[in-house]
Amino acid sequence: MVDDPLRALLRGCHGAAVASWKSKSAASARAELIRTPSSAALSRELDFFGTSSKRLEVTDKAQSSSPGRNNVKSVAPTSADMSAAVASPTLEAALAHMGIVSPTAVQRRAIPAMRAGNDVVAVAPTGSGKTLAYAVPLLSELLSGSRAQHRSAPHALVLAPTRELAEQIGRVFTRLSSEARVNARIKIVCSKAAAAGLKAADGLIDIVIATPMRLVATHQAGAINLGRVAHVVLDEADELFAGNFLEQVDDVLASCGSQLKDGTRVHMFSATFPPAIETLAQGLLKKQKKIVIDGGAYGGSAAVGGVAARIEQKFMFVGGRGEQGKVMAVRGLLKEGLRAPILLFVQTKDRAAELYRELVYDGVKVEAIHADRSQQARMRAVERFRTGEVWVLIATDVLARGLDFLAVESVVNYDMPSSASAYVHRIGRTGRNGRKGTAVTLFTEEDRVLLGPVLKVAKVSGADVPEWALKLKGVRKDVVRRMEKRPPTRKRIGGPNRGSIGKRHKKEKRLESRSRTEKGEADSESTSDGKKRNSATKGKQTRRKKRGASDGLNVATSLEEEEYE
Ligand SMILES: Nc1ncnc2c1ncn2[C@@H]1O[C@H](COP(=O)(O)OP(=O)(O)OP(=O)(O)O)[C@@H](O)[C@H]1O
């Protein structure tokens, strides 16, 4: 094993793989793998959330030619386009300070549309800057003084399907408002603690960013007044209108009640907006302004689009050998130099655990995100990925939407996404903000039903879809829909290594369990009802063990599950 330079690299290097698996031979890819950048250089590249000043230091050929663009200290002048879109010199300067000097297409159109008092529906590709497209007009209203001034009554409400996304949106608002000195009171409500804090503070709030479940609970507890909300923004609107969240979103909008009739504006943003969701959303939009950018598809039979232009999409049939074929395919991709960091999507948390075992045994620097781990452990996993300590992050669809992992080079759909929309969002974790990215989708015989819709999206977005694939016999829509709701049951992931987990993994298990115990202890110390909390934690751990999840790799299976405490 030591003879194999790839194995040595996978074990020891912090550098990113720089070879494209598609365009280079295995030998040259390996050679490039050996010339990895330093960990410092890599960590500069890995600003996943795109909101810190590090992002401006990224060494990117496309950007480095524009002087001042990569220098945090020098603020480049903004374009005429930017002045016209933002219409606020203060915000314009703040954006320039963040390295944002010209608007993206969706910003160019959505910012003025929101300012003009419309209900904006914006469908634009992943990574095209939709967050700022609504953050700018909302903060600009606060700047101009037209804000609600009622206790616990926010001026604007932003809903997002997951806690991670809500927190990311919160970071964007906080950064921009502090750069512009808006002095906006921004609250992120996506955990019990945050909701309790809101009640305790009982003060003025300008903007609330929340997950639907937590906001409903907070409202029911009387900690927030939704009666005077001027704007409701639904980020990942199609997901918020889908089964899991519909009831809660409905409750929130009902709580904005009378205001919805006489003036609350409702805005929807996503990279996908299927016709069924459009019909559902129509009733809420009084003064609607639709904005559809590039691949973003709004209505029509295509139903989804929104694939960022620079993502190279590849499909690999791993057919006959089923699950074993997939593991081999992933090993092959890594060996051939698929560019890291890599996000690897699987269908369920159990499969994440199984795949983790396979890869960790190989010596791949891999992590898996799971909802049962403490928030600290989750953040640590992301941080390890961010700094290049971990090359491959295994996740379920909980990480598929909205998260701005700016430096992710490749996405692998280890398991076929459950719908064309899911495909768009998953692969959209790479190729963000005009960067290049690679998306590889593995499929077997049992994926035939979902393959058709996914290939259509790929074809529409300019991917080189093989002729044979386009000739695949169509599947009835109701069969596709059934499959979207209930993806195929897959065989366990496990190759020859299964069962022999190896020293390294055992060590990871020990560390994980130690960190859980520490967390339990910390919880018990920091609460007055410590005993209760500590025994509850222990009970939870026991239950987990009973469920056969002693390796602690329970990745959430649904977005709903993600709303943990
Ligand atoms: N005008 C701009 N110029 C340069 N960078 C920008 C601009 N607008 C946004 N960005 C950056 O682009 C990245 C992607 O933005 P954002 O997360 O808002 O995309 P999105 O369209 O919401 O993606 P998704 O559909 O996946 O949620 C962020 O890192 C953001 O800071």
TrEMBL record:
A Pfam cross-reference name: Helicase_C
Basic and acidic residues composition-biased segments: 509-532
Polar residues biased stretches: 61-79
GO function terms (MF aspect): ATP binding; hydrolase activity; RNA binding; RNA helicase activity
GO terms under cellular component: cytosol
SMART domains: DEXDc, HELICc
Residues in Helicase ATP-binding domain copies: 111-291
Annotated stretches, region: Disordered: 59-79, 480-565
Span of domain Helicase C-terminal: 333-473
UniProt keywords, alphabetically: ATP-binding, Helicase, Hydrolase, Nucleotide-binding, RNA-binding
Keyword 4Fe-4S found: no
EC number assigned by the record: 3.6.4.13
Catalyzed chemical reaction(s): ATP + H2O = ADP + phosphate + H(+)
Similarity comment: Belongs to the DEAD box helicase family. DDX52/ROK1 subfamily.
The protein, known as: RNA helicase
